[in-house]
Structures are given as structure tokens and as C-alpha cells.
């Protein structure tokens, strides 16, 4: 299903009431709920452990997209799968064995994603594509919401779309997506758009016309 999907990141939600925030973004048309897991080691910020993700699960009626920015990642895959993730994304930079990591995600029965930092070339994904349901192209350095979109990453999206060919693999964009940058990445071949600060403003949801739904036609 290559219809454009919007995946708001609850990293920018009101942390005092995730149930309400998740309901609000889904009511406003979110396709997936993006959960940013950070460990204070792979990235300089800390967020959600498996018990937090388990607490989000009953509120998510759509699809829970769990982005692991943690290293090591392998020892925690099962815990996040059991917590209720529908898709688990790990970073190719998180360890020396990304192939093994993707196999471990697949072994849980969940869908598998591979994330690439802005400094990582598209080509590293090539030998791993058969294990991937999604490639997450980071368009900011991971760790924080509200950063500026890194434009040269758009070329990487084009390369990945060509490399993927007709395989059923999503290309997700994460970081600095807003109404200005969204059309650029969709034109380059992305079909899942994560957005934190563009959707949640000042602690309240403002998904009014998130990126212009007319892009669904692309
Ligand atoms: C960054 C996270 C993103 C982030 C996006 O490390 O992976 O999901 O929340 O936030 P914005 O849309 O504000 O760049
Ligand atoms: Zn993310």
C-alpha cells in the first residue's frame, strides 16, 4: 500500500496525557503513531522504555511504529515487540551486525525497519533490503524534535527508491518534516512521513491539514 501515510511522533506530545494525545492525532487522520525510543547513549536524549510503550498500546487504534535509537539494540527487541509494537525500526549504525538485528526483529513476527542517519549512504541498505519492510531516512541527526531538515538527504531518498524497485518496502522520512519539506520528499519517493513539531504545537495537537492531504494522490 503506497498511499501516503502520516505518522505523528509523540515525542512532541503532551507527556502528561498520552492517551488523549494519541486519540487526538488519530481522530485527525494519523495513519500510524510514531514512538521515538532514545537511550542517552546512541543519542543524547532519553525517552521511553518497554513499560511506557506497553502503556501506549491500548490507546493506539491504528499502527504503532517504534523507532529504536538505542545501542546495543538486539537485547531489547523482544521487549519492545511484547510491549505491542507493530513495526520495529533499528539503526544500521547501532551495531556491527544489522543483518542479525533485522533477523531478530523478523523473528518476533513484527515488521522490520532500518534507519539511516544523515551521514550514512543509501548503499549500506542494499544487502539488507530483503529483510526490510521499511527504510527510515533520517533528515535530522536523531535525538531531538524540532531540528532543521537536512536537504542533501533528499538525494538519498531518490537512490533508495530506485534501489528498492518494485519491492514492497516503505520509505519513511523522519526529522524536520513540515508543509514545506514534505512535498520534496514525497516527490523523491517517500511514502511515510513522520512529524513531531509540525503536528504538535505548544503541547496541543494541531494537525490541521497535516502536510496537505492532497498529496495522497502522488
Ligand atoms: C528525532 C526523532 C523524530 C522527531 C521528529 O530523533 O526520531 O521522530 O521526533 O521531530 P520533528 O518532526 O520535530 O523533527
Ligand atoms: Zn523517529
Detailed description of the structure:
The protein is of the alpha/beta class. It contains 6 helices and 10 strands. The two termini are 12 Å apart. The strands form 2 sheets. An 8-stranded parallel beta sheet has the order 1-8-7-6-5-4-3-2. The structure holds D-xylitol-5-phosphate (DX5) and zinc ion (ZN). The site of zinc ion has 6 residues, from strand 2.
- Based on the coordinates given, report the CATH architecture: Alpha-Beta Barrel
Bound molecules: D-xylitol-5-phosphate, zinc ion
| Number of domain modules | 1
Q: What is the string of SSEs from the N terminus onward?
A: EHEHEHEHEEHEHEEE
Number of helix segments? Answer: 6
GO molecular function, one term: D-ribulose-phosphate 3-epimerase activity
Binding site for substrate: 9, 67, 143-146, 174-176, 196-197
Pathway: Carbohydrate degradation
Family: Belongs to the ribulose-phosphate 3-epimerase family.
